[in-house]
Specification:
Length: 359
């Protein structure tokens, strides 16, 4: 029996009787991060990295039984040692390290290696088995440096201003939007936000993340719209909410923009390649840094990655998942209204904390 196994509710640790990023309500959930495809509503207890508690609570509800653990802190769950380590994906994202009976597994969740001022940088965690996402697990996915991409975004913004058009930049409301905002130059013009973006941006600010000033678009001055950069979730594209800005140019920031034709399929004016997931070189580097000889690949181009790993001497396999990777995490926000929300274990050991997943 392996320490973790795939079930119809997600990855399950029988020794500790808990799930990692379960797909349905369970008694004990260890959550890598607060994106909707990694969080099941209605669990009896949640454990996540401490910097992500406020984000997860915003996605669930104020009374949700969430316990936060400091990065690197060990929590004993029925004798199984569990800890969370920075994943570099979004604020509070963590890789889950599970250790029991001499065996160590790490579940990556979603992660990226490159620097991002809005979240704690990724750290490699050594293990026997590494469960990795591979959303962009093809050799064609290789991210450009973010600085030239932001230069292109700023040039596009200035060109739109000269043409009297508002700039609508679409990026996922949690994580991607805040990363974009952090890199925007407020000297160029006002930065406006969709309600879903503003809500999560407020959580980031409360966590101490430094961001330039933003204004909720619903209370902004219409006269300033042709000069504005409007940051919104992809679900807002083409909506009545977006059409209120009149003459506009649209763009999407995503790893998918690295492939020719992706922009055309979305019917947007510009595409900027910025991703909060690892590209192919970083994916291989992360696997190497983990030191694991057994790798489980989940979500994305699992077949390609597994074949490459097997050819290079790894014990690799693909596992079924319901993770959706880069997607519009706030589907429905734009159509339902600007401010519509997206929809205890025991055991201790010397030097360990706590007996329960709940606070």
């Amino acid at each position: 029996m392996t320490l973790l196994r795939a079930t119809d509710r997600g990855l399950y640790c029988e020794a500790g009787d808990f799930y990692v990023d379960p797909w349905a309500a369970v008694d004990r959930a260890v959550v890598t991060h607060a994106h909707g495809d990694h969080v099941a509503w209605g669990c009896r207890a949640y454990l996540t990295a401490e910097p992500g508690v406020a984000v997860l609570r915003e996605r669930l509800d104020p009374s949700a039984p969430i316990r936060g653990a400091r990065y690197g802190e060990t929590v004993a769950v029925n004798g199984v040692r569990v800890s969370l380590h920075p994943a570099g994906h979004i604020l509070g994202s963590g890789q889950v390290r599970v250790e029991h009976a001499g065996e160590t597994w790490v579940v990556s969740g979603d992660y990226k290696i490159e620097a991002d001022p809005t979240c704690t940088p990724w750290e490699p965690v050594r293990c026997d088995t590494f469960v990795t996402e591979c959303t962009f697990g093809l050799p064609i996915y290789r991210w450009p440096a973010p600085e030239p991409v932001m230069d292109d975004i700023h040039a596009w913004w200035r060109a739109n201003q000269a043409a009297g058009k508002a700039s609508l930049l679409f990026g996922y409301a949690l994580g991607k939007a805040q990363r974009l905002i952090a890199a925007l130059d407020p000297e160029i013009g006002p930065i406006l936000t969709h309600g879903a973006v503003e809500r999560m941006t407020r959580v980031y600010r409360d966590a101490g993340v430094r961001l330039p000033p933003t204004t909720h678009a619903a209370v902004s001055d219409r006269a300033g719209w042709p000069r504005a950069m409007v940051v919104a979730p992809p679900s807002a594209d083409g909506s009545a909410w977006a059409r209120r800005f009149g003459a506009q140019s649209t763009a999407f920031a995503s790893g998918w923009m690295a492939v020719r034709g992706a922009r055309r399929r979305r019917s947007i004016d510009r595409g900027f390649t910025i991703s909060d997931h690892v590209d192919w070189p970083s994916l291989l580097a992360a696997i190497e840094a983990a030191g694991a000889r057994r790798v489980w690949a989940t979500h994305g181009y699992t077949g390609v990655l597994v074949r490459w790993l097997q050819e290079h001497g790894f014990d690799a396999r693909a596992i079924e998942t319901r993770y959706e990777g880069e997607r519009d995490d706030t589907a429905g926000d734009a159509t339902a209204g600007d401010d519509t929300a997206a929809a205890a274990a025991t055991g201790t050991a010397p030097g360990e904390t706590g007996a329960s997943l709940a606070p």
